[in-house]
Amino acid sequence: MPTLRVELFEGRTLEQKRSLAKALTEATVQSLGVAASSVDVIFQDVARSDWATGGELWSDRKPG
Amino acid sequence: MPTLRVELFEGRTLEQKRSLAKALTEATVQSLGVAASSVDVIFQDVARSDWATGGELWSDRKPG
Amino acid sequence: MPTLRVELFEGRTLEQKRSLAKALTEATVQSLGVAASSVDVIFQDVARSDWATGGELWSDRKPG
Amino acid sequence: MPTLRVELFEGRTLEQKRSLAKALTEATVQSLGVAASSVDVIFQDVARSDWATGGELWSDRKPG
Amino acid sequence: MPTLRVELFEGRTLEQKRSLAKALTEATVQSLGVAASSVDVIFQDVARSDWATGGELWSDRKPG
Amino acid sequence: MPTLRVELFEGRTLEQKRSLAKALTEATVQSLGVAASSVDVIFQDVARSDWATGGELWSDRKPG
Q: Residue B33 class from Cβ within 10 Å (0-12 exposed, 13-18 middle, 19+ buried)?
C-alpha cells in the first residue's frame, strides 16, 4: 500500500519519470518487502515560479 | 473542518466533479455529524503519465 | 485509482471512520464509475492545537 | 526544514506569490527561530471548479 | 480559501505554533487580500526519524 | 529540490526507513541527475484503522 508523492520541478521528460517510477518502486519493494503491485507513485510538477527556498522564488534566481 | 483532497485521473467532466463533491460532502456530514459548510473538497487531476502502479506509468499500459 | 485523503479533527470513533470510508467509497464509485477496489481513503487526524482558522488555533477557541 | 504547502485559487499574480513566499518565510523564521534557507514554500493553484465548500463548487457560486 | 499545510520537526511549543499560525495568516491576508477567516493553517509534526535529507535521517545526524 | 512524501503502514523499523530513505534518494539522483543533498524524503505512518481500500479499513480485514 505504500504511496509515494513526488514533488519536482516541471520539465522532466517522460523517460525520466518512467525511469524514476520504476526505481522508486524497486527501492520500496526491497526495503519494505511489499509487492510491487501495492506501490503507487504520483508525480506533481511544480513550476519554478511556485517554489521558494529562503523566501525567494526559484524563477527569480540568477544563474551561477 | 474536514478537508478532503481527491487525486483522480484527469479527464472527468465538470458534472462528475460537481456530483462527486456533493456526494462526498453529504457522506461526511452523515458520518461525522458536522455542518456541510465546514466541509471542503479539493480535486487534484493527475495525468496518466504522472501516476505509476507497480512501477509502470498508467500511460504505458496496454489496454486489456 | 482515486485516492482520498481526509484531514479531520482527532477524536472520531473507529465506527465513524469505518462508516465514512464506506460512504466516501460508494460516492466515488457512483460519481466516477470506477471499481470500489480502486478507491483508497486515508484519514489524517489533526489535533485542535494543530489547526488554525482565521489565525486562531481551535484549541484556543472559547465555546459558544 | 519547515515546508509550507499553500493551496490557493488560481489567478494570483507572480508578484503576489513572490510577496507571499517572502512573508511566509519571514514569519516562519521569526516564530520558530530557524534559518531562512531551511524554509521551503510551494504553491498549488486550484481552479474554482476543483474546490467545493458545503458541497458546491466555487465555480458554481453566484456572485453576492 | 487559502489552506497552508506546514510540515515541521516535532517539539515546537504550543506558543510557537500559536504565534506562527497568527503570523502566517496575517502574511496571507496582506499579500492576497483575502479575509483572515478564509485562511486555514494545519501543522503536521514530523519526527527526526521520519525526515531524510540527502538520504540520511535527521535522527542519524551527528551534531556539528 | 525533489521532495518525496511516503505514506506507509505504521510498524516499520527504523532500519527499514533508514534503508528506504537512502534507496529512494539514490534512485532520484540517478533518474533526475540532481544532487543528493537536494532530495528530501518524509515518511508518514498510517494506522491500518486509518486506511481503507474498497471501502474497508485494513484493520477490519480478515487474514487470508
A: exposed
Of 3.30.43.10, 3.40.50.2300, 3.30.70.3450, 3.30.429.10, which CATH number belongs to B3-55? 3.30.429.10
Does ipTM come in above 0.90?
yes
Q: Which of F4, F13, F19 to mutate to test the interface with A (most CBs of A within 10 A)?
A: F4
Per-residue pLDDT tens, chain E, 64 aa: give them.
899 999 999 999 999 999 999 999 999 999 999 999 999 999 999 999 999 999 999 999 987 6
The reply to whether residue C24 touches residue B3, judged by beta carbons under 8 angstroms, is: no
Active site residue F2: yes
> Which residue type is seen at E62?
K
- Element holding F44 (H helix, E strand): strand F40-46
CATH code, F3-53: 3.30.429.10
A21/chain D closest Cα distance in angstroms: 22
